[in-house]
Design brief:
OB fold (Dihydrolipoamide Acetyltransferase, E2P); 7-stranded mixed sheet; binds S-adenosylmethionine; Rossmann fold; about 25% helix; 3 domains; 9 helices; alpha+beta
């Protein structure tokens, strides 16, 4: 097989990025946007050892599950991977992905419940992250192409809520009217970098990320926004770094109230530019509800909410528990969590620590275990999963119950392997153990479709002590 070869083959499996897999002689060919059972024509773009990365040229025999994508820039933009698949099939693919990751990465064979569906298949995202760049001196607004920082220009996005179109057109108008410079990634020059927007209770929190310290002609932007949106706040965020991190640390409020309040399970919570928020409000509600039901804390239970963000789940857990302890690394989120506890008259039951979980959890968990009563732990880490020290502390202190919420089936599988004993460290390297003898058993695995049309899936796992 050679680069640029055009080949015909049958898709015999689906990969972890939801690509079709075609086997030709000793080669495994990954072909994005091809479906199981399809006969396809494809082109080889790159070969490493026996793996070929390919491009779909033609579907010769389409699968029954194939549908016409709704978005004009689908396959060019990196946001969605599954618009060409019927929604029911997307759910099956995600359930299988979780179960395959468990088997392949950790040797865990366990029943995975069918992926919980999102009622909104499109227009579900309550958060927008819009890059703005200068390319060859021309301003470009859109979304990044897959695994790249090349902007794919667009006026709208079908998985975003309907206000997105107006935000994009306001920023185009603002750039045209003022001639404000846009960020050039090759020279690190230019002011406008990103626009990040959250929708909270019918108000928008709009954050303009700039490569500088003040937003040029901000009054023009405010007046353009005021023509389109009834209730909004405008922040400027300073990000002078040359890295790919979207937000810098300093936010300045230019217009509006700045903070809006939302309510979930009768807990009132403020949303600020830095607070973490799940992007699909309806599925988030179901997920959080299931976390609370699964933990099932009573007045004898202390719950540790590790990676607690702005403390919404901590407060929900505290309601029925003896007490709840949040651990979160972002200080602004911890401040919000403390305010939330006061506002909801729960501060006597909640302690929020601003610290890395890998330091704080090992420090506090044994003390809490030594107290009377049950201890339950919620883990909701970012994509990279839990630090080794967090899992070691859990394996030592042995809380009665662990509920693990994850947006990465791969790191979830690894961490579950460590907690159930199917993966063990040997000379600092993780190895498969054929006769697992860990401290925990997996009682329940429930995926949720927080992100329809994309390859991503959120999963809840309940572990109990053997
Ligand atoms: C997936 S979010 C979960 C947020 C929260 N559970 C919620 O539902 O709103 C992960 C959180 O972990 C925080 N985080 C990342 N690394 C951390 C670490 N090493 N220690 C503590 N918190 C961390 C992030 O700032 C983020 O708020």
């Amino acid at each position: 097989m050679h680069k640029n070869d055009e080949l015909i083959g049958n898709v015999s499996a689906i990969g972890s990025n939801m690509e079709g897999i075609v086997r030709i002689n000793e080669f495994i060919c990954f072909v994005p946007y091809a479906l199981l059972g399809e006969k396809i024509k494809f082109k080889v773009l790159k070969i490493t050892k026996n793996i070929a990365f390919c491009k779909l040229l033609e579907v010769l025999t389409p699968a029954e599950e194939r549908v016409r994508p709704v978005c004009r820039v689908f396959t060019k933009c990196g946001g969605c991977q599954l618009q060409h698949v019927k929604y029911k099939e997307q759910l099956k693919l995600k359930t299988n992905l979780v179960s395959d990751c468990f088997k392949k990465i950790a040797g865990i064979s366990v029943k995975v419940s069918p992926c919980f569906k999102s009622d909104a298949e499109y227009e579900y995202r309550n958060k927008l992250q819009l890059p703005i760049r200068s390319v060859g001196g021309e301003p470009k607004i859109g979304f990044f192409a897959e695994s790249s920082h090349r902007i794919v220009e667009t006026d709208d996005c079908p998985i975003q809520q309907s206000w997105t179109k107006n935000v994009i057109s306001v920023f185009k108008e603002f750039i045209n009217a003022t001639g404000i410079s846009c960020y050039d990634e090759s020279s690190f020059q230019g002011l406008l970098r990103h626009v990040v927007v959250r929708n909270v209770d019918k108000a928008l929190i709009i954050v303009v990320v700039i490569n500088g310290t003040s937003l040029y002609k901000s009054e023009v932007l405010i007046s353009l926004l005021a023509k389109r949106f009834l209730k909004f706040s405008l922040y400027v965020n300073e990000n002078l770094s040359t890295s790919n991190v979207i937000l810098g640390e300093k936010n300045t409020l230019l217009f509006g109230d700045g903070v809006y309040e939302d309510e979930e399970f009768s807990i009132k919570y403020p949303v600020t530019p830095m607070s973490f928020m799940q992007v699909n409000s309806a599925v988030k509600r179901k997920l959080y509800n299931d976390v609370i039901k699964t933990i099932n804390a009573d007045e004898n239970t202390t719950v540790i909410d590790a990676y607690s963000g702005a403390g919404l789940m901590t407060a929900m857990l505290a309601k029925n528990a003896k007490k709840a302890i949040g651990i979160e690394i972002v200080s602004e989120a911890v401040d919000a969590a403390n305010k939330l506890a006061v506002k909801n008259s729960l501060s006597h039951k909640i302690t929020n620590y601003c610290a890395p979980c890998e330091d704080k959890l090992p420090e506090i968990i044994s003390e809490i275990r030594a107290e009377k009563g049950n201890v339950a732990v919620v883990l909701d880490p970012p994509r990279k999963g839990c630090d080794k020290r967090v899992l070691q502390a859990l394996n030592k202190a042995l809380p009665n119950k662990i509920v693990y919420v994850s947006c990465s089936p791969q790191t979830l599988a690894r961490d579950l392997g460590i907690l159930t004993g199917s993966l063990v460290y040997e000379n600092n390297e993780l190895k498969r153990c054929e006769t697992p003898n860990g401290n925990y058993v997996i009682e329940k695995v429930q995926p949720y479709d927080m992100f329809p049309q994309t390859k991503h899936v959120e999963t809840l796992v309940l572990l109990t002590r053997k």
